[in-house]
Amino acid sequence: MPYELFLALRYLRSRRRRRMARVTAVLAVVGIACGVGALIVAMALANGFSDEMRDKILRGTAHITIMRADGQPMPDYNQLIESVRKVPGVTGAAPTTYDGAVVTGPTTSTYAVLRGIDASSASARAELQRTLTSGKVESLFEPALNEHNEPQLPNVVIGSELARQTGLNVDDIAELIPASASVARRAPVRRNVHVAGIFKSGLFEYDSTWIYLAFDRAAIFVGSERAASMISVEVRDVDNVDAVAASLHRQLGDSFSIVDWKQANIRLFSALELERRAGMVVIALIILIAALNITTTLVLVVVERRTDIAVLRTMGAKAASILMIFLSEGALIGIIGAALGVVLGLAGCIAGNRYQLVRLPADVYSIGSVPFNARTTDVMIAAVVAVVLTLVATIYPAYVAARMRPVETLRDRN
Q1: Which is nearest to 230 in space by CA: 29, 376, 80?
Q2: What are all long-range contacts of 226-229, with beta carbons under 8 Å and residues at least 24 apart?
């Protein structure tokens, strides 16, 4: 072991005549540990909120949405889908339609969004099945005629919050007034539907407004039979969706408008990233304040050990070695504090996930609870920031110790 490191460890373990230095050292370690732990928890909370919002948004919407630039329906959507599926990175494409509507239940009427699901879209059906709390997806695609060739009402699946607001339950009859068909006819078009299921995605905007129904029935409701208002595209890598969107734009040209999920939610995720960075800066300043305690600690050590420093210099120790002794002592304090902070932060994340400590009003923040998603890179960044700030706070007292003159120190001692 280099003697510089040996002396640094010796000074940290020394118990004689150094009560004040030990107290300040312990306070510095505790401050750094608390700062690192808080930084890890804050970044994990920001990651959890962003990831939860992204996952819930992607569950209900397409990775990429293709529409005609003029906003008109697409009667030849099958040919377009075949062309889209050939683009590298695309895993699926299906027709769909969206339309606003007024839904009326036993208790009240409210605004809703009609979304058509194509029977051939296995992923959309699987996702809806996963979020169902009652009913079954297959009922959406049952024919409009029963076994006696008698007309029956089309089936729909509605959001749990929408069901609560309107008082609708499974097997109830709801009345819909689609916006597009009503505007085209210049009079309200009333449609009765059968509630076959209720879903709960966890995202308040979807659960309080969305109504799923079969694509062909939705196209009739909006007045564009055998036409799709848009194409929903799924990609293999959702984080690389912009590259796939660019490929689709090159292939389809300017006749179509292509919007990926990042573009559709750019304001939301930009705001979340800004909050995350601001939180990191604020907590990093807290770590810096804690690291400044190390400056106080090492100043006390230098004052108490000035005779030892003078003796070492007279024995041939170089100024660089004296500098390294105190830099090592400060680095050890920073490393110990950072290690304890990592343990503290990860323990806080585990406890937060287990007991769901962060709960939010769903009608305000869209999600009911926020998970703590601690990432390895964030943990490493927090630890490295703490150690670097500690070393910065160590430079001045270490420089003072290295500049001390042994002759003057021993003369003043005598």
Answers
A1: 80
A2: 226/75, 227/73, 227/74, 227/75, 227/77, 228/73, 228/74, 228/77, 228/95, 228/96, 228/97, 229/67, 229/73, 229/74, 229/96, 229/97, 229/98, 229/99
Q: Quick one: angle between helices 3-13 and 319-355, nearest 10?
A: 60
Cα–Cα distance for residue pair 193/173, rounded to 1 Å? 6
Residue 287: closest CA among 39, 23, 27, 26: 39
Token reading at 118: 């194509």
Q: Other C-beta atoms within 10 Å of 153: how many? A: 14
Residue with tokens 């697409």: 74
- Given a contact cutoff of 8 angstroms between Cβ atoms, the answer to whether 154 and 216 are in contact is no
Q: Residues 232, 121: contact at Cβ < 8 Å?
A: yes
pLDDT band at residue 377 under the 50/70/90 scheme: very high
Please check whether residue 134 is in contact with residue 117, taking contact to mean a CB–CB distance below 8 angstroms: no
Beta carbons of 202 and 366 less than 8 angstroms apart: no
Residue 238 corresponds to which amino acid? V
pLDDT in tens, 141-188: 876 555 555 567 889 999 999 999 999 999 899 999 998 888 878 888
- Please give the residue that has the higher pLDDT: either 131 or 18: 131
| Close Cβ partners of 260 (under 8 Å, ≥ 6 residues apart) | 63, 64, 65, 241, 242, 244, 245
- List, in order, residues 6 or more apart from 347 with CB less than 8 Å away: none
* Rg, Å, the chain Cα set: 32
Tell me the C-alpha distance between 335 and 341, whole Å. 10
- Whether 333 has a pLDDT exceeding 90, the answer reads no
Can you give the pTM of this predicted structure? 0.78
In the numeric block, the tokens 């079969």 are attached to 214
Are the CB atoms for 314 and 406 separated by under 8 Å?
yes
